[in-house]
Amino acid sequence: MLSSSIPEIISMIIVLLISFSVHEFAHAYVADSFGDDTPRLAGRVTLNPFAHLDFMGALMFISFGFGWAKPVPVNFRTLMLRSRHAPVYVALAGPVSNLVMAILGAFPIMLGLVQMPVVEPNIFPSMYGLLSTFIVFNLVLFFFNILPLFPLDGEKVLLHLLPANAYDQMIKLRRYGSWPLLLLVLLLPMLGIDILNTLVFFPAVTIARWLIL
Predict the structure, then answer these.
(1) Which of 26, 44, 69, 107 is found 20 to 30 A from 51 (Cα to Cα)?
(2) What is the pLDDT of residue 1?
(3) If pLDDT is split at 50, 70 and 90, which confidence band does 173 have?
(4) How confident is the model at residue 6 (pLDDT cuts 50, 70, 90)?
(5) Which ranges of the chain would DSSP assign to H, the alpha helix?
(6) Any domain includes 1
(7) Does residue 98 sit within a domain?
(8) pTM of the model
């Protein structure tokens, strides 16, 4: 459900612009560092949010707390020539950047430099409210993106860790495109089976509370 207050909406927009941009930049930067110039030629080795944002993915993020940006194009053949583990590093770079951002965002609160306001402002978010949103949703992005389902980063990592026979079986699932992910995100909750809350939102909120309380 869309955030009900103006400060929450502003916080979500700021978080989106920063978190998605750093996530995709991390993918592009690591691929570029392994000699794959595909992201650079596509203009993706940048922190400019407009190079990375996808309108529908951004709307989903603001509305439901998870979403997506434009995938960074990479040449897996080039990456594999440099290192057989390079695709794993490229895939992990995005989620790890979200985890790092969540931890860094918690420091000002942990050190007592930013405290919870007595009264939340009506228009612009407080620094505490902004950082809290930043922490929670970067953790949501981390846990969501490491799910081993196509086209998420976790699926790419899992593929490169599996033995050959299991790899072939996993690749076959790609014929179904994003339907397994949509099943998890949309259809199962409608049936009262909220796996996404168990795998993504609950651990994200739990760690956020541990970081800032």
Answers:
(1) 107
(2) 45
(3) confident
(4) confident
(5) 6-33, 38-41, 55-64, 76-82, 86-110, 127-145, 153-161, 164-172, 179-182, 188-190, 195-196, 202-212
(6) no
(7) yes
(8) 0.90
- Find the domain containing 170 and state its range: 6-212
Amino acid identity for residue 210 in this structure: W
71: phi then psi, degrees, rounded to nearest 5? -60, 140
User: Over the stretch 112-129, which tens digit does the pLDDT of each residue have?
Assistant: 999 988 887 788 899 999
Q: Kindly report the number of other CB atoms within 10 A of residue 191's CB atom.
A: 8
Q: 69: helix, coil or strand?
A: strand
Residues noted as catalytic? 24
Question: Which pair of structure tokens corresponds to residue 199?
Answer: 């795998």
Cα atoms in the Cβ-side hemisphere of radius 13 Å centred on 140: 23
Within 8 A by CB and 6+ apart from 183, the residues are none
Phi, psi (degrees; rounded to nearest 5) at 66: -145, 150
Residue 129 near residue 7 (C-beta atoms within 8 A): yes
pLDDT tops 80 at residue 136: yes
Q: Which residues contact 153 (CB under 8 A, 6 or more apart)?
A: 91, 92, 94, 95, 145, 146
Other CB atoms within 10 Å distance of the CB of residue 45: 19
- Asked if residue 88 is part of any domain, the answer here is yes
Q: How confident is the model at residue 187 (pLDDT cuts 50, 70, 90)?
A: confident
Structural domain includes residue 37: yes
